[in-house]
Specification:
The chain is α/β, with parallel strands linked by helices and about 425 residues long. About 40% of the residues lie in helices and about 10% in strands. An 8-stranded mixed β-sheet has the order 1-2-4-3-5-6-7-8, with helices on both faces. Helix 1 runs antiparallel to helix 8, helix 3 packs across helix 4 and helix 8 packs antiparallel against helix 11. The longest helix has 26 residues. The relative contact order is 0.12.
Length: about 425
């Protein structure tokens, strides 16, 4: 009997060990991580993780950084930046944009939560409000640029990681003086180059006329060259690491570029380190180990609970597999039709149903476009699959065991993992 619980025990060991490793990396150097909530201007509750380095206090306020994730992500996605900046002595606020994670509201509300996040960070008594940087990945650039628009003198520098400034003619469109001390980190293989900087490839972003206008350059922007002056807020730098769009905020190159720029433009952190000095990957390793532990807990829990009186009828007699249950097998042509429908319906319906889902604009009940589209696609696939089942079935399937006990066992096993 004890042998049945070995996988379950291994799962708990992995979950606890992985969680401990992730925790030690996140809090390296005495950093404290707080789960915070605050009110947005529109009355919505906003969520963030606040990383407070050791030594930051009202009598010794530290510089601060607000970081923002991209579309359909959450505050944890900015972990690499938050970990590296906090261990260097910056107070870091990693926000959930409105309509994301634990934040209320919906997409497009109140500057994506950026202005509110900046005000909250400035209000912390252990933060020096005169020394604040902003960093955002992808759509997180909307949050940090809107924060900069709301307080043109409320920050010292800004990093756009795989992101862009508003279009010419729009509020906050970039120029040689706005945003202040701007660094653009854009992957060589970033697939959003045409949308953001109107160039076919990320490698060619330096030739973007839009970027040239932001940098005040009379020709293509040279990656790595410093333009303007940090002292008067006009500094500019372009970095093109060899990464894709989602890789920008999970790469050593993307993190190093942002850290180096923030240290250069918002100095005074207690523990300055080269951008190449990074430990965040070990937090991700710990999370991966813990995730493997979750799977082992679920599978091991099922194995351990199966012989219990409640579920023992599910166990094959003598440990041998059950013989196939009865029920007429459909004719080959009908079987192949069912197979092709089962495989093809989800794939072939994806784009049409995603287009239908786009009509459901973000709202309090359904805060994100992509999530709304995926719900429509999932429900549509379910309806089409049920119709295909009705058209192709032959006879009625019979089960050796009623569906209640297997379903109950599945629920209990997954609940063990979440516990």
């Amino acid at each position: 009997m004890a042998g049945r619980w070995r996988l379950f025990a291994l799962g708990w060991a992995l979950a606890l060990a992985g969680g401990l490793l992730a925790h030690l990396v996140q809090t390296a150097g005495g950093v404290r991580v707080e789960d915070v909530r605050y009110r947005g201007a529109a009355g919505e509750t906003l969520s963030a993780l606040l990383y407070v380095p050791r030594g930051a206090s009202p009598s010794h306020p530290a510089p601060g950084v607000m970081v923002s994730h991209g579309y359909i992500n959450t505050r944890e996605m900015q972990g690499p930046f938050a970990i590296e900046l906090a261990r260097r002595g910056y107070v870091v606020l990693a926000i959930d944009m409105v309509g994301h994670g634990y934040s209320g509201g919906w997409l497009g509300l109140d500057g994506a939560g950026g202005p509110d996040g900046l005000r909250y960070l400035q209000s912390r008594p252990f933060v020096d409000p005169r020394r604040i940087a902003l960093e955002g990945h992808s759509m997180g650039g909307v949050a940090v640029v809107d924060a900069a628009i709301s307080q043109p003198d409320g920050y010292r520098s800004l990093v756009l990681e795989g992101s862009t400034t508003p279009e010419p003619g729009q509020v906050g469109a970039g120029d040689p003086r706005f945003p202040r001390n701007l660094e653009v980190v854009f992957g060589r293989y970033d697939e959003f180059a045409p949308l953001m900087w109107h160039e076919a490839r990320g490698a060619d972003v330096g030739s973007s006329s839009k970027l040239e206008a932001v940098f005040g350059s009379r020709g293509p922007v040279v990656p790595g060259r410093l333009y303007g002056s940090v002292a008067d807020g006009t500094a500019r730098r372009l970095v093109i690491p060899p990464v894709t769009h989602p890789w920008e905020h999970f790469s050593r190159a993307g993190v190093a570029a942002a850290v180096d720029w923030i240290e250069a433009t918002v100095p005074g952190a207690a523990n300055p380190l080269p951008g190449s000095d990074q430990i965040w990957i070990w937090k991700e390793a710990g999370t991966l180990i813990a995730l493997a532990g979750f799977a082992a807990i679920v599978l091991g829990g099922c194995e351990g609970l199966a012989p219990s009186p409640l579920f023992s009828s599910l166990e094959p007699a003598g440990g041998q597999p059950r013989p196939p249950v009865g029920g007429a097998r459909p004719a080959p042509a009908r079987w192949w039709l069912a197979f092709l429908l089962a495989a093809g319906i989800p794939a072939l319906s994806f784009y049409p149903l995603m287009d239908v889902g786009f009509i459901f604009a973000p709202s309090p009940a359904f805060p994100e476009w992509v999530a709304n589209q995926l719900v429509v696609w999932a429900l549509g696939v379910t309806a089409l699959s049920l119709l295909a089942y009705v058209l192709t079935r032959r006879g009625r399937a019979r089960f050796a065991e009623g569906g209640i006990k297997p379903a109950a066992l599945a629920v209990v096993c997954v609940a063990l993992g979440y516990a």
